[in-house]
Design a protein that fits this description.
By secondary structure, the chain is an all-alpha fold. It has three domains: 1-199, Growth Hormone, Chain: A, CATH 1.20.1250; 200-256; 260-510, Up-down Bundle (Growth Hormone, Chain: A). The protein has helices spanning 3-6, 12-28, 37-44, 53-65, 69-76, 78-98, 102-116, 119-130, 136-164, 169-172, 174-188, 201-220, 230-252, 266-296, 301-325, 331-349, 359-385, 392-430, 438-447, 454-486. Helix 4 runs antiparallel to helix 12, helix 8 (119-130) packs antiparallel against helix 9 and helix 12 (201-220) packs parallel to helix 18. It is globular. 47% of the residues are buried. Belongs to the major facilitator superfamily. EmrB family. Pfam families: MFS_1.
Length: 510
């Protein structure tokens, strides 16, 4: 069927639900397993420095295979690839739940990554194809809700499943969801045509090496103390060399792995850069907030999830609203407002303290979630508005890859800043504290200790570490605020579609 015929799918609503179940299942697995790692470590007999391969193997496998989505979809048909991906991901999830050793778990997580890599780009391309242009904003709102809310809810759901049942249910939960998605796609998605095209193995090899080495470097850098480790140096050099070779090969090959037409669309390129910047902020702050609530403020897992839930609710409300606003309001204006709200929410987070209640986290989370929701939908809609339909699957895969790389870089960046700032802040605070400091002397009298005793020195060191850690988190939020503000000028690279309600979308000259 042609893209025009796909808009006449009889069960469009059911197909939309099925595709969203598939993508939510896959996106959840990028974060849901994090909180279960301690339980897995004991059950699988893994060491502290090896259990992280449960996360690394999934991320790296998914990143390497994701660019293949467009070529495989053309070779076997998009509907067949979708069904194979959902079935394979569901089976791999079941195998992960039954794993008896770390080796088995890593192998099954690799399978999860391989089969799950295509789910996000396929779902985006399908939602664009089965909806007429005037509904693309609402379609991207639905897709964006799953992409952005699922990572926020993942740690909460994973913690609840681990505490209430067992860590294996973090993976078993995918089985009923995957089954429903498979049946929905099988009965509602029409067959798509196959299109034979040559496969640029050299280009794919260079791109795969770049993505794999980069993801390994970002994921293992903190654990290995970054560039003091020979492994990180080798992975960085491999990533840089592979990227250079990929660019040179793509510029000279007759049929490069990624069609060059994609990069001639200014809106798509600008939206991809935007996605990279927003992904840095989205998952980085998602990774920072739970440790603050649990380690500094002492919240249990369930309470942490309830406090963070309003952020996801804000995102969903914004996406439902913006899907309709796109018909009447310039999407670039919506993006500016969204980035402003995101920066304002992050600015509010720079005022966090260890003894505050949950209200500042709730209202800043809602503001930031609402802002990100306003950015994500118009950015995706405008980015794909001027692309030819036959390039949607390929471009959606690249779009998702850029989003994943941005998320990985964001998490690594805040981890580096956090670790180093804790040490610096602790040293600066400690050098100002002596037994004769008024605050120290008052604290010693309050707890009935001698200010010069070694026991009280331990208490002061704990307090100093807590304050130094909180300051380091605040510094990270400030950094994310600057990243959000730095993305604002990118709005000028976007061209407003002249119309979304009629015929082909033609960009304005502005």
């Amino acid at each position: 069927m042609t893209p025009a015929e796909l808009t006449d799918v009889p069960h469009r609503g059911l197909l939309s639900i099925a595709t969203m179940l598939a993508v939510i299942m896959q996106v959840l697995d990028t974060t849901i397993a994090n909180v279960a790692l301690p339980s897995m470590q004991g059950s699988l007999g893994a060491a502290q420095d090896t259990i992280n391969w449960v996360l690394t193997s999934y991320i790296v496998a998914s990143a390497i295979v994701m660019p293949l989505t467009g070529w495989i979809a053309d070779a076997i048909g998009r509907n067949r690839l979708f069904l194979i991906s959902v079935a394979g991901f569901t089976l791999a999830s079941c195998l992960c739940g039954m794993a008896g050793s770390l080796t088995e778990m890593v192998a099954f997580r690799v399978l999860q990554g391989i089969f799950g890599a295509s789910l996000a780009p396929l779902s985006q391309a399908v939602l664009l194809d089965i909806n007429p242009r005037e509904r693309h904003g609402q379609a991207m709102a639905l897709w964006g809700a799953g992409i952005m809310v699922a990572p926020v809810l993942g740690p909460t759901l994973g913690g609840w499943l681990t505490d209430s049942f067992d860590w294996r249910w973090v993976f078993y939960i995918n089985v009923p969801v995957g089954l429903l998605a498979f049946l929905g796609i099988a009965f509602t998605m029409p067959a798509s045509p196959r299109r034979h095209r040559s496969f640029d193995f050299v280009g794919f090899a260079f791109l795969g090496l770049f993505v794999g080495a980069l993801q390994l470097m970002l994921d293992r850098g903190e654990q290995l103390d970054w560039f003091s480790s020979p492994e990180i140096i080798v992975e960085t050099a491999l990533a840089a060399a592979a990227l250079w070779c990929f660019i040179v090969h793509s510029a000279t090959a007759e049929h490069p792995f990624i069609p060059p037409q994609i990069f001639r669309d200014r809106n798509y390129v600008a939206a991809s850069i935007f996605t990279f910047a927003i992904s840095v902020v989205l998952l980085a702050t998602t990774a920072l907030l739970p440790p603050i609530l649990q380690r500094i403020m002492g919240f249990p897992t369930v309470t942490t999830g309830l406090v963070l839930a309003p952020r996801g609710i804000g995102t969903m409300i914004a996406m439902l609203l913006v899907g309709r606003l796109l018909r009447f309001v310039d999407p670039r204006l919506i993006i500016v407002v969204g980035l402003g709200l995101t920066a304002w929410g992050l600015w509010g987070m720079t005022g966090f303290t260890p003894d505050m209640d949950s209200w500042p986290i709730i209202y800043t989370g809602v503001a930031m979630g609402f802002g990100l929701g306003l950015v994500f939908v118009p950015m995706s809609t405008v980015g794909f508005a001027t692309l030819p339909p036959q390039l949607r699957t390929e471009s959606a895969a690249l779009y998702s890859l850029v989003r994943n790389i941005g998320s990985s870089i964001g998490i690594s960046m805040v981890s580096v800043v956090l670790t180093r700032n804790i040490q610096v802040n602790h040293a600066e605070l400690a050098e100002r504290l002596t037994a004769f400091s008024p605050g120290v002397d008052a604290a010693a009298h309050a707890v009935g200790m001698n200010a010069s005793s070694s026991q009280f020195a331990g208490v002061i060191d704990q307090i100093t570490t807590l304050q130094a850690t909180m300051i380091a988190y605040v510094d990270d939020f400030k950094l994310m605020m600057y990243v959000s503000l730095a993305a604002l000028p990118l709005v000028f690279l976007l061209r407003k579609p002249r119309t979304i309600a009629q015929g082909p979308v033609i960009p304005d000259a502005e």
